[in-house]
Design goal:
The chain is α+β, with helices and mostly antiparallel strands. The protein has a single domain, classed as Glutaredoxin, CATH 3.40.30.10. Helix content is about 55%, strand content about 10%. The protein is built from nine helices and four strands; from the N terminus they run ααααβαβαββααα. The chain has a four-stranded mixed beta sheet, sandwiched between helices. Strand 3 and strand 4 form a beta hairpin. Helix 2 runs antiparallel to helix 3.
């Protein structure tokens, strides 16, 4: 049985603390998780740039902003992530913008996947530990109201096809991040708008 409240209050860190953790580990020649290989360090460095870009350039859509403004209840967003995860870098800044825009209605915390294996194993995607995972909790953090992971549905379908057709994982990653660059967070925001809109039905 997962104690979401204990994880949220005891292990969760806010967005700025998470970003500072990734930066500090990179200065030490490390990334989050147990694998500090050159490849993983490269991914983490690229992801810092991606998060910086989304932080600076992405604006919430009118529809998403309106749904956030109309929220009556208070919620907790628990996000499972890692610094080396490319999808997370493209998406978690949007979670932060949602929480910031909510003016206190949404409390956002992040935890690392590889330090919370029972948690990620309770939220697998097609049997895999794909991240990021957004877990929407009630205000008391003792009930899961909704989840969203690990990328927009249309991209999930495309990625499945790309992996079948293209043996080179680096080429697949290029296509993935090319899709994110063209989409400019719009599909992610549309799915999160629908998720938030359904919370108080």
């Amino acid at each position: 049985m997962i104690d979401y409240r204990e994880i949220f209050d005891g292990k969760g860190i806010d967005y700025l603390t998470y970003r500072a953790l990734v930066d500090q580990l990179l200065l030490e020649g490390k990334t989050t998780g147990p694998d500090h290989s050159e490849a993983m360090l490269h991914y983490s460095k690229m992801n810092v740039q991606r998060m910086n870009r989304v932080d600076k350039t992405a604006n919430l859509t009118e529809e998403l902003s309106a749904v956030i403004g109309n929220l009556k209840g208070n919620y907790k967003f628990l996000v499972i992530t890692e610094g080396w995860c490319g999808d997370a870098a493209q998406i978690i800044p949007i979670f932060n913008k949602i929480a910031t825009t909510s003016l206190g209605k949404i409390d956002l915390k992040f935890v690392l996947r590889d330090q919370n294996i029972p948690l990620i194993d309770a939220h697998l995607t097609n049997g895999g530990r794909a991240i990021p995972v957004l877990i929407v909790l009630n205000e008391a953090a003792d009930q899961v109201l909704a989840t969203w992971a690990p990328r927009p549905q249309v991209l999930q379908a495309l990625l499945k096809e790309w992996k079948k057709e293209i043996p080179d994982a680096l080429v697949v990653a290029e296509k993935l991040h090319g899709w994110y660059a063209k989409d400019k967070t719009q599909t992610t925001q549309a799915e999160l708008t629908a998720l938030l809109d359904g919370l108080e039905d």
